[in-house]
Amino acid sequence: MNKSKKYQFHYSLTGNKNQPLILLLHGFTGNSQDFSSVISLLSKNYCCLAVDLPGHGQTRVSGDESCYNMSNTAQALIHLLDDLQIDKCLLLGYSMGGRLALYMTLHFPERFEKVVLESACPGLKAEKDRSHRRQADSQTAQNLENSNIKDFILSWYDRPLFKSLQKSPKFHQLIESRLTNNPLELAKSLRNMGTGNQPSLWEKLAQNQIPLLLLAGEDDDKFQRINAEIASLCPAATLKIVPNAGHNIHFESIDKFGEVVRQFYD
After folding, report:
1. Euclidean distance between CA atoms 241 and 244, whole angstroms
2. Strand partners, 240
3. pLDDT value, residue 6
4. Are 168 and 162 in contact (CB under 8 A)?
5. Which of 239, 242, 96, 65 is CA-nearest to residue 164?
6. How many other CB atoms are found less than 10 A from the CB of residue 206?
7. Please, what is the Cα angle at 118 between 108 and 14, to 5 degrees?
8. For labelling alongside 216, which of 93, 113, 162, 260 has CA 20 to 30 A away?
9. CA–CA distance, 65 with 74 (Å, rounded to integer)
10. Strands 47-51 vs 11-14: parallel, antiparallel or unpaired
């Protein structure tokens, strides 16, 4: 079977197709609808293509687990752009989707004009750290397969990384949207697209020439540090710290998020 035929991507295409197009990639446990507020802000001036990534939402994968890894997912998304006759576009990725967006930028630079990376990282530098993280991701995936999806989602979002997100009046709404995912599919995504299984992209940053906007929330110390280091290694990257936000900036501070993204793309 043709590799690209192993993916039935579920996606939404919003806005005028004659406008510049933005490909939007969501984070782990999310889906394409996570960007509905972002799309509302941007679709007047841009056409927005939001995709359910493998293991999430209504996208279906008919191949083995290797179809869920970063390189195969990236190639499949390039095939999707080809099928939609999109030669070049803008790109926006959040968290796991941000890691994937960075991979696509570095491996398919001819396809992207400008890229926004929200709370993203280039992976882990050392093999021993990747190995340790793979074991942790594998254990978490096993727990996910054996547990109630609601229990897993509540424990996932109970981590310090999401402390400011928990204070949002719409936090309950976000949790409810996560429960529509299939736990067995999420587990495949975590095992194969998790940070432990991702190739390190640190050494490729210096050669990147595509303009990157790095976004980190002012309450997200870990990703501020990571993105400050990315900016120091990549001359084409600009770091912006977004006030009143933690890890999930587009959920916690949507107006500011929309403003900085528009300014960068314009």
Report:
1. 10
2. 215
3. 93
4. no
5. 242
6. 10
7. 75
8. 113
9. 14
10. antiparallel
